[in-house]
TrEMBL record:
Species annotation: Muricoprocola aceti
Keywords, alphabetical: Membrane, Transmembrane, Transmembrane helix
Protein name: SpoVA/SpoVAEb family sporulation membrane protein
Entry annotated with the keyword Membrane: yes
Transmembrane spans: 6-24, 31-51, 91-112
Length: 118
């Protein structure tokens, strides 16, 4: 049942993203941000552990899992370091390469001024 639950929950996430891609003017990068933020909120409200227990890789492999990983890192760093943990928690929780990709892609989006789909 673990594989089946991971398959259908992960597939549902993919279907919802595909619907967003096809029926909205949202760019794929913005949809990815929606997934990361959703994973963060699910972690913040304490729902992600239940989803992870039920669906396993169906929620941890997509960007929902990455958002939860960032949330867990920030929460731990704030408990240990206070206010400064807000800034360093996400970097220590995720791989250095992933954190650098986030920083450089944000800088690139500020420089390049991305446009909406028509």
């Amino acid at each position: 049942m673990e594989y089946f639950n991971a398959f259908w929950v992960g597939g549902l996430v993919c279907v919802l993203v595909q619907i967003l891609i096809e029926n909205t003017k949202l760019m794929p990068g913005r949809i990815m941000v929606i997934l990361v933020v959703t994973g963060t909120f699910l972690g913040a409200f304490g729902l992600f552990p239940y989803l992870k227990e039920y669906a396993g890789a169906g929620v941890t492999v997509p960007l929902l899992g990455f958002g939860n990983n960032l949330w867990e890192g920030v929460k731990k760093a704030v408990d240990e370091d206070g206010f400064l943990g807000l800034f360093k928690g996400g970097f220590t929780a995720a791989a250095t390469g992933t954190s650098s990709a986030l920083i450089f892609s944000y800088i690139a989006s500020l420089i390049c001024q991305p446009k909406m789909k028509k």
